[in-house]
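Ticket #4471: complex job returned nothing on first submit. Input attached below:
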Amino acid sequence: MTLLRLIFVFLACLVPLAAQEERAVLRWAAATDSNAPYAFYGPGNRLQGFEFEVIQAIAAEMGRTPEFVPNDWDGLIPGLARGLYDCVICGIEMTADKSAEVTFSNPYYTTFEQLVLPRGSESVDSLDALAGKSIGTLSQTAAFHMLEKTPGIVVKTYDEEFNAFADIEHGRLDGVLLDYPIAKFYASGNPNLMFNTTPFGSVTYGIAMVKGNTSLATAINDALAKVIASGKMRDILSRWGLWTPTVAEAFNQPVEPSCEPTEFEAFIAAGAEKPGLLERLWGYTRFWPLLLKASILTIEVSILGMLGAVLLGFALAILRVYGPPPLQWLSTLYIELIRGTPLLIQLLILFYGLPNIGIKLEPFVAGVLGLALNYAAYEAENYRAGLLAIPKGQMEAARALGMTQRQGLFHVVIPQSFRLVLPPVTNDFISLLKDSSLVSMVTLVDLTGAYKQIATQTFDYFGAGLLVAALYLIIGLPFVRLARFTEDQLNPLSKHVFGKPKTPRGGPAS
Amino acid sequence: MENVQPLVSVVDLHKSFDDTPILKGVSFAIEEGDLVSVIGPSGCGKSTMLRCLNGLETLDSGCIKAAGASISRQPGTPLDRSFEKNAHALRQKVGMVFQQFNLFPHRTLLENTMLAPMTVRGVPREEAEKNGRRLLEKVGLGNHTDRYPANLSGGQQQRAAIARALAMQPQVMLYDEPTSALDPELVDEVLHVMKALDAEGMTQIVVTHEMRFARDASDYIIYMEGGHIIEISDEDEIFENPKDERTRRFLKRFMS
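Support reply: We reran it on our side without changes. The output follows.
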């Protein structure tokens, strides 16, 4: 369809082309919503974490400049295949399943699964003892698979470790099983929780690269070996409080940490501060640049998405009402297909599925196109209702005056239906604005992406949620007002009609 | 009838909706300048006949000629593209006024009169506007050119609808029950406009229930019933001395 291609080309022009790959750069990805102590945004919106430091050290050994590419956890591996970045370092466990999908470096960290229980519980020696209990973990992790294999355990999955531990305190969980570093950073300082004495399983993290990229794997492994041998790795892990006997043994290094766990202590200290409401609000001001950028992205994606939806939806509606039978049928098929499937799935197919058939869309284009294609189906139905609501006599009068059907449509029927469809179209724009939050799933940092970053830094899910919700509301309000104003202007019975005063020039209607 | 080429002629017109025959062979001819009223009971097919005259309905069979344009169909032949093409040409010659006015509510009266000349004929805006004002003046709406239809009375709207149809300079005007949707006190202002047009020599066909108007203004009257023309007759003749029993019965109800 020509219109569709036009929209696509239009959108493609709006985003800069992907930066050309340079030899000296090592593009690495981690999930922006991943947490301490891996790679996370700390105070001042600064990226930090032990993985962040490890990849800096490795890149330095390789003589390459590290460049961070943010992504969503679920998109990390597909992003490798799309060539968005060279490698992923994000606490990815080197399981057999994952090894089939990607090429792993040698391990850069080795640890175990730590069970965290409510204070005062009895430690257990085996996971079997947890039968009948609700145990939380992160989805699609080694811990998740261990829990799944244990009969009788009710497994609850979370996207945020912070929320899992909080749910033990809320009484929703009997325990949480997660990688030791997570437990150490999120539960060890909490007086209401306790660590189980027996560790479970064994976990090794590796740097993931696209399957079969052995030359990069060799280069990274060489650099990693130097980072370990030089003691740099011991320094990094010691500062983060992660230098355990397990790691020391795996790397064949001294058991004692080489320095104080300063980073760990700083993290706990920051978390222990309980700022008041005013201080918390003041604290959010440091996110102002992030929120501003994210708001602009949300507005851009929404307006362009709506523009595409309005144009395509209009074409679909005309085809469905006035087109020849095969086009009517195709239009109906499109509308039913799109309305019957979730927007999230459509977005994921556009972004991660299409590359399989050779179509790689920029995240921005995929986001806008996804919203446009989806909302076009709803707009088409709005317009169809609008077209059908215009009395038949209008088209008859137009034809009786010698107009063709097309002239009657464009001069008489469509202008009238425009006013009728304005309220539902405004409604749809408001809901599109909110649905645009889904573009955070295709690596765009929109308001929802910003919410994830802020919430994971401050652990203030409530406050950050209210803040971002308020921003969505504020962005939406002017459009509601605008629509009401336009609707009023288009109403022939309103006070001012197309800017002309209503005062009749003649006498009153007889 | 005198031996003059008729302006409008209808020959053996048949039309049915979903296998229900509405027009069962209607034929008549009208000369230039005549005002003809079509009367008859509800469902007799008079409105359908009028809509066929303007090509708004397709024909089952028959032939319609008006001011040089024509549409026709042989019995049993399929409708082809040329029918709509011919009907479109026919509508250029024939103006139509509807029971429900069907003014364009999103346009002022002046814009209502300008739209078709500008889009169909490509008339320049200034000329269309001048012509529109003249026609609105003529139907007594010179003070209302910038008002919207919703702000006007039914009589004013119907007069504006007549001006709108005249703007396309038709040679024949069709009226489909033009006063049926009006309050009684507004009927006369519309009929007055139609009489004035008659005086100027406009050819007009009026489907109506307004017997007083039919009698006062028509050159002659067509009485239809059951899809047939029962009687075509001089206006005084048909009211005082109807030839057909069915006409007599119908008129009795109105004239008592």
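DSSP finds 20 helices and 13 strands in chain A. Closing as resolved unless it happens again.
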